[in-house]
Amino acid sequence: QVQLVESGGGLVQAGGSLRLSCAAFGIIVSLSLNSMGWYRQAPGKQRELVATITSGGRTNYADSVKGRFTISRDNARNTVYLQMNSLKSEDTAVYYCKLQSVGIDYWGKGTLVTVSS
After folding, report:
1. Which candidate, 12, 30, 91, 92, has a CA 20 to 30 Å from the CA of 44?
2. What is the rounded end-to-end Cα distance, in angstroms, of the chain?
């Protein structure tokens, strides 16, 4: 039983920055063996991958956010972060945290990011 709790979403002007956090609670003591990811879903659109980070710290980004977003993790605190800079209107979406475990993925409830022009 794992629960993921996202925080840090809100309203920001285009060109601004936000930092999202995702903390894991439950039977997992450490995230050291788990890959983590951030996904987003805009109104009327499919959920899409934003960024992933492996247990070893290797990262991958969607082309649309490369150079602007940074994913990181602190295994000792069971937390993953998404630093978002140079935000655009197209980044407006609900952002979800995902933990990849053996045979099952865990998802948070999401946090809303709204970017105004």
Report:
1. 12
2. 41
Reduced to 3 states (helix: H, G, I; strand: E, B; else coil), residue 34 is coil
Radius of gyration of the chain (CA): 14
- The two tokens of residue 21 are 């956090």
Give the pLDDT mean for 33-39. 91
Both tokens of 39, joined, read: 């996904």
Give the pair of three-digit tokens for residue 68: 């602007």
* Each residue's pLDDT tens digit, 17-32: 999 999 998 866 566 6
Q: Could you tell me whether strands 10-13 and 111-116 are parallel, antiparallel, or unpaired per DSSP bridges?
A: parallel
